[in-house]
Amino acid sequence: MQRALLQAQVIIDEATGRHITNQAMLQQVDMLRDAMHHGCYILDTFRYQSYDEEAKDQVLGHSFSLSKVNFLKGTSSSNRNKLLLQQLENALDNLSSMILHMKECVVFLMSYTHLYRQPYSMHLLLGNCMFSRQIETELVVNFLLNTQIHACEELEVLPIVGPSKVGKSTLVAHVSKNERVQDHFSKILFLCDHDFTDNDLTILREGCALKHQNCISNLNKDKGWLVIVDLVGELSEDAWNVLYSSCKQLMPSTSKIIIANRSAKIIEFGTTKALNLKYLSLEASWYFFKTIAFGTMDPKMHPRLAHVAMEIAKLLDSGFIGVNTVACLLRDNFDIRFWCKVLDFLRRFVQKHVSKFSVNPFDLMNQNKPVHLGRMANPFEEVVFYCEYQRYSYEEVPKIRLDDVVYRSVKALGKSEFLAWNSPIPPYYSYIVTCEVRELKQRYAKRKRSTENGITLC
């Protein structure tokens, strides 16, 4: 399995570093990547199972992951080994078969031009680029560069839909910075929620949303514009009609529109099939989380830490912000006791909400609904999450980070704003949360403290 994973990694790294335009080849690379993530996950489960003394008390972060990671629950040690070995053999057979069928693709792969890339370490590479979205990127780029043979009076529109924090803004930001896209359009405009306060959308005329202007392309009046509409709130049909009419009046017929939103209602605005973004699979999320959390360290040299990290990853949602935040927290505190405290804290947090409300608390946070987070370092206080929003890179952000409040002993009382995450990749958003730090009643806090002291963390 280790040799097969290495072979798959070589092929995927080579494919990721090239401009692949063939959709069938992109799909094969994507399938190989999924098989590699699955094989890595099963191998790590087998490798670190001896540290899983509390497997029966696992709290899973997502209901859809039950069939994938909970097949060991309630089994004896010998049966568990047999099941794992069977899973490992199946994963190896699948991965080996895919590598074998990739031989022809590898030959054709060499014909595609290289992308320029700095020689990053893997954790820096994953932390500073868009993870596992190559096929989606090329689908959007192909839509933008595809010129219709017959002239059409209607502007082409691509809807991109997906849940909160799945990476819609990141995808369109990366596409807009693609050299082929910038060479193809004379102007690239971005519109967000506050741009729809004016019914006549004078922002299109004034150029206030201009993000890119191709001076060479401006000499050719046939070059179209690209308008990217990236919204958090829902877009009404009336507002869309005003925008679309304005675009048709002001822009060349070769212009195109991308509209990104979490609501599936925007699909009806499209002239082509919508792109539906989904969260990372459990296996892909673990691969990303492990790479960021361990940095330059080899997880195989720290098996107990790797086991704890794996348990933490199961509790998190598969959104990039949460995974990044916790992974960076662990990397900055590379200590088994701290990692075990984080694991115990998150287990209690998830289990409490699931047992009381029958819903994952991370799902509530993604919907901007109130959630009681608690404080790991201070049982006499709790943090109540209210909402999260984003700010642009040029806007001022709070100095106190949310993870310092939740996982460390930073002093903060009352309702305030905290910095949840600074994205190192386009569009470089800062994610701000509104929370309230409350003092708990003394009786409840003492009971909470005694319960924590009476349980082994790892």
TrEMBL record:
InterPro entries assigned to the protein according to its UniProt record, in alphabetical order: NB-ARC, P-loop_NTPase
SUPFAM superfamilies reported for this sequence: P-loop containing nucleoside triphosphate hydrolases
Protein name: NB-ARC domain-containing protein
Domain NB-ARC: 152-294
Highest taxon of source: Eukaryota
Residues in coiled coil: none
PANTHER family xref list: NB-ARC DOMAIN-CONTAINING PROTEIN, OS10G0134700 PROTEIN-RELATED
